[in-house]
Amino acid sequence: MKILDLFKRKEPKAVFEDWPFAPSVLPNILTGISVAGEGALQSPTTLSAVRALSETAGSLPLHVFVRDGEERRRDRDHPADLVLNRRANKWSGPNGLRIRLIHDALLHGRGIAVAVRAGGKVKELHRVEPGAYSVDLQGAEPAYIVTLKDGSQKRYGWRDVVDVLTPGSTIDRPLCITHRAKNAIALDIALSRYFERLLAGGARPSTIYTPSNGEAIEPARWREIKKFIDEQMATSGDVFIPAPVEADLKQFSSVDMQTIEWAAAVRTSIAAAFRVPPVILMDYGRATWSNSAEMGQQFLQSLLPWLDSIEFAFSRVLIEDDEKNFLEHQIFELVKPNIVQLYAAGRAATGGAVVTANEWRRFALNLPPQEGGDELIRQAGQTAADEPQTPPDENKENAYGK
User: Residue 364 gets which letter from DSSP?
Assistant: First the structure.
């Protein structure tokens, strides 16, 4: 042996490599957990947050309006109404496309769809798979290079690409939430796998088997014993071991008992990253009758930046600069109360001379107008703003005879 050999790094030997239990020795819970792209959806909390945001924002009605002086009205005849409310293309509905674009933005930072025009008007929108495009920022204006299925590439101007970006992103630096929260997401996946291993034995803690006479048992013999125990555990609760071994049933450790609190803390961290209240993720640990409604209102506040991003992404493709049209989501479904509260609010609004009965029927109930429903219902003593006010009669006695 040379003196320099003392300073050479030696490769560690594989301990217990011949044992049947070798794969479970000292596992690293975060090793090999990928949260890139669709891999983040292995986390139940992340899957719930992505679905809550994408399905809610993508399902809200997105209408075309036109400005008419100081008023506005819905423009059902605008060409954009075709892809927004009828069909995005021949095989996809409009809501399904928006849901998928938001889904891509949550997992990859952006979701894009290219426009198919005929006669200068957009007739269809086709989603592009993440990774099949790149953004060229070398020219005066940004352009998108899309790789087609045959391997060829096609260049699109920004006017022909719906680019839904995560709020807070720029066109050259999209913000990917799952990448920023990768540690919390990986820990949530690790805890899910830990629960699976913990409950794999019928929610029973593990057992340690040792030779009762102190003699060594060959690995091949241990394999036979393990196979025999597994077969008996699969058929009955009692196990008889025809070998000189002792069984030591282990109890759940304090770490095992604390994993529920760990999982709750991880869920809260992921919910904060996506800005989704925990109650929306089906976590009712701290929910009450009063704060559940407030959390729903907070969820609407979290959705507003997404709705703005969607409206801009579609407007730059579907609306010309010289038009008086604009896109706007209808969010009433998110704030609509239960049926009792809805009718109570309608009675207060129409009875307080705020809106007419027909306006409330159209806005809240989606019902046709009825005869006589276009007049405000005034309370006793109320007059219209353009009617002269009648001064009180000073000579008339009041209820107290004065």
Answer: I
